[in-house]
Design brief:
This protein is an alpha/beta fold. The chain has 11 helices and 7 strands. Strands 4-6-5-7 form a 4-stranded mixed sheet. Strands 1-2-3 form a 3-stranded antiparallel sheet, with no helix packed on it. The radius of gyration is 29 Å and the shape is elongated. The termini are close together. About 25% of the residues are buried.
Length: about 325
């Protein structure tokens, strides 16, 4: 099944693989004999046939307009591969704390020792929801349906990489995470995620052509692409904001202080003219020159290291960009 060619008509997984079965009906009011209504899985107050309400619910749950706008430039910030997602057990090996977020714009965004992951909503695990609601033909579907479907496909596909082993499922079902429903077994989610393997990059929203993204780079490049100070605010107080500059400022201050001290020693020994302390004069001059030389070498080494890392990352990004372009141009028109 090619999802990219039938993206608006076919559910990305088989009915037998669905992790959430047919939605239950609930009474419309407190009377026992009242007719029942079908509700959206995971949203007991949202009626199944309320298309406007479903769309209003899905848009903030799935769409990532800022990252889609930045997508032509994301190759400069991350590996250009949708598979660049570490499994949950690898996140722990790397010392990252998994932080739950309900904001899709933070899904798979990491910074230092934490990564944000959005739990799977139950409605996207239902075959009936995909077939009857999300993929419903006009006029039931809204104008944002193509964007919602692409975002949902990319979002679901990201879990193929997050959950690769049974240990990953155990992590996802921890009480403090609950990324997937607790009752899901390893056999069930294996079949479900296996069906998502046919989703290609051209069937998902531009953001999901990439995997994990570093928040510090998004904040840096966001100033130029989004025309705003940051992508996601990290500091809510002035103290924590200015605290990030203390370390670099103290380091620079220490370098200047060491240089000034060394020059002070050199000037002081120049004033010593007595023959009895000639050895002390030479020793002071040697120590001062050694301190200045060490300071110059340290500064040069740090600059060269930064330059090496900067050039190496850009070389990799450009090579990967060119390789992706060549591979895409060599594909036949009927490539699946």
């Amino acid at each position: 099944m090619s999802v990219s060619s039938t993206v608006f008509r076919v559910c990305p997984f088989n009915r037998d693989s669905a992790l959430v079965r047919e939605p239950a009906s609930q009474a419309s009011n407190s009377h026992a004999n009242s007719p029942s209504v079908k509700t959206v899985p995971g949203h007991p107050l949202l009626v199944w046939d309320d298309r406007r309400g479903v769309t209003s619910m899905l848009e903030p749950e799935l769409l990532t307009p800022e990252l889609d706008k930045m997508s032509p430039y994301l190759w400069m910030m991350a590996t250009q591969s949708s598979a660049n997602i570490n499994a949950l057990h690898r996140q722990i090996v790397k010392g990252r704390k998994i932080v739950i977020t309900e904001d899709p714009r933070l899904h798979l965004i990491w910074l230092q020792d934490r990564i944000h992951i959005k739990p799977l909503p139950k409605c996207l695990l239902s075959h009936a929801f995909w077939s009857d609601v999300l993929l419903s033909p006009p006029p039931k579907s809204g104008p944002r349906q193509p964007d919602l479907v692409k975002a949902a496909l990319g979002y679901l596909r990201s879990y193929r990489y997050l959950i690769r082993h049974e240990s990953d499922l155990h992590i996802a079902q921890r009480e403090d995470l609950r990324l997937v429903p607790k009752e899901v077994t390893w056999e069930q989610i294996s079949r479900f995620l296996g069906d998502l393997g046919s989703i290609r990059d051209d069937a998902v929203s531009p953001r999901y052509a990439f995997g994990e993204l570093r928040l510090s780079r998004l904040n840096f490049y966001g100033k130029f692409i989004l025309r705003r100070f940051h992508y996601e605010r990290l500091h809510v107080q002035y103290g924590s904001y200015f605290g990030q500059f203390y370390g670099p400022l103290l380091f620079v201050f220490g370098l200047f202080a060491l240089a000034l001290q060394a020059m002070q020693v050199e000037l002081a020994v120049e004033q010593l003219s007595s023959a009895t302390i000639i050895n002390l004069q030479e020793l002071g001059r040697v120590l001062a020159l050694m301190a200045l030389a060490w300071l110059a070498l340290l500064t040069l080494a740090l600059l060269l290291l930064f330059l090496y890392l900067f050039v190496d990352e850009w070389q990799y990004a450009i090579r990967d960009r060119l390789r992706k372009g060549v591979t895409k141009s060599m594909r036949p028109d009927n490539y699946i």
